[in-house]
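Design job #97: recover the sequence.
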């Protein structure tokens, strides 16, 4: 049953409680479209039936997005009239699944919500958390369709971020296991590892490596862990938290300076004060690897220390796989779909100069090295089967072979290139920069980039 995705971490009870508050709110503008939608959740059946009849008589499809929102906040025992109204206005027989109706609305790309939808959205979300008024203020600019923004029933920062966590040298990291996965981030020759088993619970991290402020945003639902530089022209970095909202099954984070929503997948502001600006976060290379492989390449690395007090406070189990087990069965709809790959197939994703390309991880790890071109850039992709790590570099027209060691490549002129986290290096030639990329599940990537290419073995 698709609505089971709403039951993780007790969200069913949260939603029912919010529904009770929503239904008890004063009904303003009772005669207009949104007022009638409110009446559809009344405890009184006569009120619900009357509202449904009036909405069906108006034959106004612009209230459909609001009806779907109302479905989320309304207990099942009161949903019959909402569903009947939805089916009557849409001409579709979809049933009572909220997530199926969300997918339907997503597909209606030419359907404009009724005027006042931003305020309607705020009215609903502010019952989850009044702080959403700082994001969805009247007239707030937005780059994405508001009707596709979903609530997970979580307040702003209801999933706590990790802010400036403690870290120790690898030699002191007795708590790490050789096969566990880490996100490895390198800036200015400094290296730091972040255990996935911890990030899987918190999903958001703010840290500083050397002099570089970073955010590591991990959308567990779509499998995308992306590192961003958070520098600003003013010199004061953005810091990010989890909003509790989703867009096409991808988490929306928010910055605590302007209360703007940002996309985890694109690094762009999408709703709020910065959404009308050209600002965009710079993606940093990060490597999803095993701890053993990371520390072998970088014995001088530091690693984040899991905070046992934070885990106890939030009842998080930091053992490997625990967060995934807690989320088992959670799913949110993405209406743009492709059966080119299996829905949950893991891919390595690249975006260069407006071009998007997906590399199936099983193929990439099997081949080990791929020469390719994306967005006019000639690239070499290096994949390590043992650790699962993928690194991508510009190749400047060169063709490489593996050298004698894992950290070495040889070009056609027999020059030896050293593979570092930030570039390829050799004597007598300009270094070749690393190109940021990240893993993702196929459905999540395609939902944002339906024009994506898919790598195939030549």
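Job complete. Output follows.
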């Amino acid at each position: 049953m698709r609505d089971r995705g709403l039951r993780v971490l007790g969200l069913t009870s949260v939603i029912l409680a919010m529904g009770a508050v929503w239904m008890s709110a004063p009904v303003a503008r009772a005669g207009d479209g949104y007022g009638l939608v409110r009446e559809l959740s009344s405890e009184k059946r006569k009120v619900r039936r009357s509202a449904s009849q009036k909405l069906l008589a108006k034959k106004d499809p612009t209230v459909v997005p609001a009806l779907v929102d109302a479905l989320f906040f309304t207990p099942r025992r009161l949903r019959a009239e909402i569903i009947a109204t939805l089916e009557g206005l849409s001409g579709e027989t979809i049933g009572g699944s909220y997530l199926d109706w969300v997918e339907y609305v997503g597909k209606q790309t030419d359907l404009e919500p009724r005027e006042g939808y931003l305020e309607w959205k705020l009215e609903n979300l502010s019952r989850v958390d009044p702080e959403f008024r700082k994001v969805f203020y009247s007239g707030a600019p937005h780059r994405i369709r508001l009707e596709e923004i979903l609530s997970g029933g979580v307040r702003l920062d209801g999933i706590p971020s990790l802010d400036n966590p403690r870290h120790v040298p690898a030699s002191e990291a007795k708590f790490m296991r050789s096969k566990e996965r880490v996100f490895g981030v390198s800036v200015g020759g400094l290296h730091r590892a972040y255990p996935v088993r911890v990030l899987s619970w918190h999903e958001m991290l703010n840290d500083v490596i050397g002099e570089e402020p970073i955010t590591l945003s991990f959308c567990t639902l779509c499998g995308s862990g992306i590192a961003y530089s958070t520098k600003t022209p003013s010199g004061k970095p953005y810091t990010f938290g989890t909003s509790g909202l989703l867009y096409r099954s991808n988490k929306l984070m928010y910055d605590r300076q302007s209360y703007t929503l940002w996309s985890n997948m694109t690094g762009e502001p999408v709703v709020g004060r910065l959404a009308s600006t050209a600002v965009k976060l710079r993606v940093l290379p990060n490597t999803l690897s095993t701890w053993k492989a990371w520390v072998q390449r970088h014995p001088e690395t530091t690693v984040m220390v899991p905070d046992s007090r934070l885990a106890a406070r939030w009842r998080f189990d930091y053992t490997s796989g625990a967060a995934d087990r807690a989320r088992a069965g959670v799913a949110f709809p993405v209406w743009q779909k492709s059966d080119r790959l299996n829905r949950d197939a893991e891919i390595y994703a690249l975006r260069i100069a407006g071009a998007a390309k997906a590399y199936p991880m099983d193929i990439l790890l099997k081949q080990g090295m791929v020469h390719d071109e994306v967005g006019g850039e000639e690239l070499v992709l290096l994949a390590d089967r043992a650790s699962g790590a993928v690194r991508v570099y510009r190749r400047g027209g060169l063709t490489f072979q593996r050298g004698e060691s894992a950290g070495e490549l040889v070009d056609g002129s027999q020059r030896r290139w050293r593979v570092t986290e930030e570039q390829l290096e050799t004597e007598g030639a300009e270094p070749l920069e690393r190109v940021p990329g990240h893993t993702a599940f196929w459905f999540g990537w395609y939902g944002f980039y339906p024009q994506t290419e898919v790598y195939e073995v030549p």
